[in-house]
Amino acid sequence: MPTIAVTDANFDAEVRDSDLPVVVDFWAEWCGPCKQIGPALEELSEEYAGRVKIAKVNVDENPEVTAAMGIRGIPALFLVKNGQIVANKVGAAPKAALASWIDSSI
């Protein structure tokens, strides 16, 4: 399952109301570290298909959810389970570290 684009309009439906845990990546086109972790998140999305959903929120295009989540730096990753934030991580990390973070949080 590829990563999904989440917006201000569908954040609750795709993230808070999801039956699966959701990793939410807050990112922007101009963010170098965001671009570094993008391919790893795409691969992890395939590897965790059916167990974890990976969503991406463009902070420039979705100011409401970005402000509501208190995003001050990107990339910012949140793991949301049963509508609640259970873990968060700021900054780029290699794929193995991202997988380990997800595994320890789900």
Short description:
This protein is α/β, with parallel strands linked by helices. The protein has four helices and five strands; from the N terminus they run E-H-E-H-E-H-E-E-H.
Give the overall average pLDDT: 96
Overall 3D shape: globular
* N- and C-termini, Cα separation: 18 Å
Specify the biggest β-sheet: 5 strands, mixed
N-to-C series of helices and strands:
EHEHEHEEH
Work out the helix count.
4
In angstroms, what is the radius of gyration? Answer: 12 Å
Which residues sit in consecutive blocks of at least 5 with pLDDT less than 50?
Answer: none
Q: How much beta, percentage-wise?
A: 25-35%
Strand order of the largest sheet: 1-3-2-4-5
Classify the helix fraction into a percent range: 25-40%
Structural class: alpha/beta
The overall strand count is 5
Written overview of the protein:
With 106 residues, the chain is an alpha/beta fold. It is built from four helices and five strands; from the N terminus they run βαβαβαββα. β4 and β5 form a beta hairpin. The longest helix has 16 residues. The protein is globular, with a radius of gyration of 12 Å.
